[in-house]
Design brief:
six-stranded mixed β-sheet; mainly beta; single chain; four-stranded antiparallel β-sheet; 10 strands
Length: 151
């Protein structure tokens, strides 16, 4: 399924499918690893070369949940600039300050700091998308994963 568009198209594979049972994400059952204090991680993978793009297929919450943050990594490091992502709920960024968004640091595979959102509520029926806001200028980076820490 195509989540991001652009040149070349970037495809994201979501497990489970786009309608996500948030009770499963919250550690009640599968899928995925359960983090500290019942936190779980929703991985969004973007294979291939990255390009600036807008998420066009939403993930819908089936119950109210809290987002604690997000972080990102790339299998192939970006060069020349950081790769920056934005997480949106109902088309509105959960980060009021662009500098706080999840990123992969130029020349590395990740940023070890959790990008703490300003808006943390993801209510039942609301849709989440992830945008690629910036890519490396010399090499864009490739094979990215954005992890959403939620409960």
């Amino acid at each position: 399924m195509t989540i991001f568009s652009g040149e070349p198209p970037i495809v994201i594979h979501i497990e489970p499918p786009p309608v996500v049972n948030v009770s499963q994400i919250a550690g009640v059952g599968p899928p995925g690893p359960v983090g500290p204090a019942g936190h779980s991680y929703l991985p969004l993978s973007i294979p291939g070369l990255l390009a600036v793009s807008v998420g066009d297929i939403p993930i819908t919450a089936t119950r109210d949940t809290t987002i604690f943050g997000a972080w990102a990594s790339c299998g192939d490091v970006p060069l020349g600039a950081d790769v920056i992502f934005d997480v949106l709920i109902e088309g509105v960024s959960i980060y009021s300050t662009a500098a706080n968004r999840p990123r992969v640091i130029d020349g590395t595979n990740t940023d070890i700091d959790l990008a703490i959102p300003d808006f943390t509520d993801w209510l039942a029926g609301e849709q989440m998308t992830v945008n690629v806001v910036q890519v490396g200028s010399l090499f864009p980076g490739a094979r990215a994963t954005v992890m959403i820490d939620c409960q």
